[in-house]
Amino acid sequence: MLKYELLPEQLLREGTLVEESIFAPIPLPEKYFVGPHDAAYWQRLQHGQLTRHEERATGFPWSEQLVQREVTILGGTVQCAKLALHTGVALNVAGGTHHAFADRGEGFCLLNDQAVAAHYLLHHEGVGRVLIVDLDVHQGNGTAALFAHEPRVFTFSMHGARNYPARKEHSDLDLPLPDGTDDTTYLKLLADTLPRLLDAFQPHFVFYLSGVDVLATDKLGKLALTREGCRQRDRLVLELCHRHRLPVVVCMGGGYSERIADIVEAHANTFRVAQELWF
């Protein structure tokens, strides 16, 4: 997508980032994502052996380049997680592939980057508890299913009630929102919920999916947040992480406004807030 090119260019041009702040991810070795994802599914995906139904569910025609893209996104989010343990925060320009299940892909997601990175932290970095805050407009159904029986990971999804997917999974906490939810309603609900979650679950690490498909301008979102409301949402989440000294990885997730400038500017605000708080 064009936003993946334009967003870093914008952040560099305005001085929010410098070249040294940006790294190019490397593909993640399969030993780190076979486990969260079924080995049989990975083999079929890797070798282009998905059924027509499975391929259609992903929304993508299969190609070797597509598989490489997905594995590289995994690598980027895991690298971000390792960085955040030392710097406090790291952001992936891509990522947020929360519709991928252990054994299948859906909704333009083939492999689940935040789930794989959370699994990596639990098994290779000694992290005890992980909170996934999914504020993309679509429920993180794949993520919810992947961690349904993992008490060390708490999944929180705040999403459009009448949006994709039609069949929702059960996150540890789901907050479905009616169509047309505005800034005031959205931000009050988030501000009432997230601090209590942090106090109750006491995570050691946070993944934040900051989709900008919550914007009123989004073609698929059905909510009614302004760009300023979206920025305040990011500030609320990131300020809480900063205040509690919780390492956080942010993945950009969805954004489908008609004007590419609306998408890039909303995503850029996420980086600006993180830069202001940590650096």
Pick out its properties.
279 residues, alpha/beta, Arginase, Chain A, 6-stranded parallel beta sheet, 9 helices, 44% helix, histone deacetylase activity, hydrolase, Histone deacetylase, hydrolase activity, His_deacetylse_dom_sf
Number of helices: 9
The CATH class designation is Alpha Beta
* Radius of gyration, taken over Cα atoms and rounded to an integer in Å: 17 Å
First-residue to last-residue Cα separation: 28 Å
Low-confidence stretches: none
CATH H level, superfamily name: Histone deacetylase domain
Bin the strand percentage.
5-15%
Pfam families: Hist_deacetyl
Family: Belongs to the histone deacetylase family.
Protein name: Histone deacetylase
InterPro entries: HDAC_classIV, HDACs, His_deacetylse_dom, His_deacetylse_dom_sf, Ureohydrolase_dom_sf
In short:
The chain is an alpha/beta fold and 279 residues long.
Give a written overview of the molecule.
This protein is an alpha/beta fold and 279 residues long. It has helices spanning 3-14, 39-46, 52-58, 64-87, 113-124, 141-146, 183-201, 227-243, 260-278; strands spanning 89-92, 130-134, 153-160, 173-177, 205-209, 248-251. The protein has a 6-stranded parallel beta sheet with strand order 1-6-5-2-3-4, sandwiched between helices. The mean pLDDT is 97. The two termini are 28 Å apart. It has one domain: 3-Layer(aba) Sandwich (Arginase, Chain A), CATH 3.40.800. The protein is globular, with a radius of gyration of 17 Å.
